[in-house]
Amino acid sequence: MAGIRISGLSKFYGGKDSGMAALTDLDLDIKDNQFVTLLGPSGCGKTTTLRLIAGYVMPDAGTIRVDDRVISSVDGVAPPDRRGMGMVFQNYAVWPHKTVFENVVFGLKLRKVPADEARRKVEETLALVNLAGLEARLPNELSGGQQQRVALARSLVVEPGILLLDEPLSNLDAKLRERMRVELKQLQRRTGITFVYVTHDQAEALALSDQIAVMHGGKLQQYGSPDEVYRRPANKIVADFMGIVNFLPGELRAGTGGAPVLVVDGVEMAAPVGSKLHAGQAVDLAVRPENVRISRLRESPDQLVARVTEHTYLGNLSEYWLELASGAVLRAQTHPLEPFQVGDEVHVSIDAGECSVFPQAAAATPMVKH
C-alpha cells in the first residue's frame, strides 16, 4: 500500500501572480492504511487538493510524494493512470448501457488481464462491496447505494494503493448515507488501502476518519484525529465549523496562587485546561451544547443564571436556548427527561475542561455549514 506526503503545495487559478489562490502552502502527511478526510466548505481547497493528488491538476508550487516517489511538482506531473490510485466521483460515473460486470471489468480489460483472471477479480470485488449476484443488472435496475458500490468496485478491482473519493455519498438519502458510511469504513479496514475522502459534512468526517484535515480559505487549519479537531480545535474557525458551538465573551484573570480564572457574565470559573493566554486578556469561551448542564437550583458559585427562551424536542435529546444576564445566548442539550419550560429561570454549569478559549479578535469570515 502507500502513504502520501504533501509539501508546500499551492495552486493558483488564473496564474500565480494575478490569479486566485485555491490552495496555499499545504503540508500534509497521510500515512499508509489510513482513512483521511479533507473537510471544509465550498471553495476551501479540498477538491483542488484531491485533484492535485489524482494528477488532474499541475501544482504552482510544492511537491506530492507517494512513498519516496515524486508524482507531482512544478517540473512535471505523473499521469493519473501511472499513480496507482483509484477515483470515486460524486455522481458515480457508471456507464448506463453496461452491466455491473461490464462496468467493473473495464479497467482490467484496459490492462489486458486474461479473461478468467479478470472474472475472478470482478467476482471477488463485487462480493467485497456486497454486490454478489448482481453482475448482469444495468445501473437503472440498481438503487443509488448499489450504483455507488459499483463505482467503488470499479476502482478497487485494479488493486490501487490509494483510493480518492470526492463526496461519494452526497447524492444519497440520509439513511442510506449513514449505512454507506459504515460500509466504507469497514471496506477500508478490510482492504488496507489508503483512503483520501473529500466532504463538507462534519458528521461524515467524524464518523469515517482516522485523521481529518480541516480546510478554510485554501489553507489547512488543523490536522488531527476526529477527537482532537472536535474537542481541541486549533482556532475559532475550526471550533465554529466542527458542529454546534457557543462563543461566550469573557476575561482571564489571575486567581489565587497565580492560576488563571475565567470570568464570564460576572461569574468566576476555572479556566480551560492548557490555556496559554495571559491574565487581563479578553477572550471567547467555546462551549459545546453537550457540555452545558442546567439545574433549577443553585448548586455552586460558578454557575451562570439564565432564562429559557426556546425549547426544541429532538427525540433523543432536548435543546434549549438560554439567555444570560448580559444578553448573550447559550445553546444547551440535555436528556429529554430533563424538562424545562420557556420562561424558567435556571442555573447553568459549564464543563470548562471540555471547552476551549481563544483571544477576542475582529470577526473572521465564518465557515458556511451544510
UniProtKB/TrEMBL annotation:
<dbReference type="InterPro" id="IPR008995">
    <property type="entry name" value="Mo/tungstate-bd_C_term_dom"/>
</dbReference>
<dbReference type="InterPro" id="IPR027417">
    <property type="entry name" value="P-loop_NTPase"/>
</dbReference>
<dbReference type="InterPro" id="IPR013611">
    <property type="entry name" value="Transp-assoc_OB_typ2"/>
</dbReference>
<dbReference type="InterPro" id="IPR003593">
    <property type="entry name" value="AAA+_ATPase"/>
</dbReference>
<dbReference type="InterPro" id="IPR003439">
    <property type="entry name" value="ABC_transporter-like_ATP-bd"/>
</dbReference>
<dbReference type="GO" id="GO:0005524">
    <property type="term" value="F:ATP binding"/>
</dbReference>
<dbReference type="GO" id="GO:0140359">
    <property type="term" value="F:ABC-type transporter activity"/>
</dbReference>
<dbReference type="InterPro" id="IPR012340">
    <property type="entry name" value="NA-bd_OB-fold"/>
</dbReference>
<dbReference type="Pfam" id="PF08402">
    <property type="entry name" value="TOBE_2"/>
</dbReference>
<dbReference type="InterPro" id="IPR050093">
    <property type="entry name" value="ABC_SmlMolc_Importer"/>
</dbReference>
<protein>
    <submittedName>
        <fullName>ABC transporter ATP-binding protein</fullName>
    </submittedName>
</protein>
<comment type="similarity">
    <text>Belongs to the ABC transporter superfamily.</text>
</comment>
<dbReference type="GO" id="GO:0016887">
    <property type="term" value="F:ATP hydrolysis activity"/>
</dbReference>
<feature type="domain" description="ABC transporter">
    <location>
        <begin position="4"/>
        <end position="242"/>
    </location>
</feature>
<dbReference type="InterPro" id="IPR017871">
    <property type="entry name" value="ABC_transporter-like_CS"/>
</dbReference>
<keyword id="KW-0067">ATP-binding</keyword>
<keyword id="KW-0547">Nucleotide-binding</keyword>
<keyword id="KW-0813">Transport</keyword>
<dbReference type="Pfam" id="PF00005">
    <property type="entry name" value="ABC_tran"/>
</dbReference>
<dbReference type="GO" id="GO:0043190">
    <property type="term" value="C:ATP-binding cassette (ABC) transporter complex"/>
</dbReference>
